[in-house]
Amino acid sequence: MNARKKAATPRAAAKKRLGPAHVILLVITIVLGLVAATMTTLAVRRATEVNAVRSEAAQTRQEANDFYATHWCNLIAPTMRERIARHYKEYLRATPEQRSAVDATCPGNVATASVIAQFKIFKNIEFSDYSCSPTADSTAFACTIDVAIVNEDLIKRLPEFSSFDMTITIYFKKDEGTPYLSPDFTTTETVTMTFDAQGRGTAEFQTKYQSSWGANYALSISEYYPNV
Is 113 among the domain residues? Predict the structure, then answer.
């Protein structure tokens, strides 16, 4: 009888082991991957922090500009008329961002300040006529005034304003001298006036008076304030 031969059982495949060089390369690859991931995370975090700082700085600058604008706008008022020209010069010297904030906050105040700074009363605003007389009971002095704006550039600015507050000073002198030069008594009244397209306006007002002051008088425009 022929004996059957059993098939030989194959040996299990021998496990391959990484050499030292391969292990080192693998470790380096893993480390580099971790470093790259860490660097990416740090870069993203840094960019976020930089953007946050920039945003905060921009907000701080805007708040500072808004504060400057509010402060400047509050300085433009009839009660502070004598300083307005100086404040307008400060506005012109301000940074572009500060001026933009002022322009957005109070454009009317900017217009008022620019007119006061650029156009003095002398040779720009004058009486074309006026007349005054004591009231029947001699307790007041009633006046009618005609005022003319004689500067063409100022006339062009009139549409920007609703009216003008004109401060009128009345001088009284008992004798026949010139009231302007050495008045015995003075009074001051503020009259709100509107002007036509040619720069002409008329107003009436009364001021305090005593009969002992006499009727030798003169008027002058001492101040004006454009109202938006």
Answer: yes
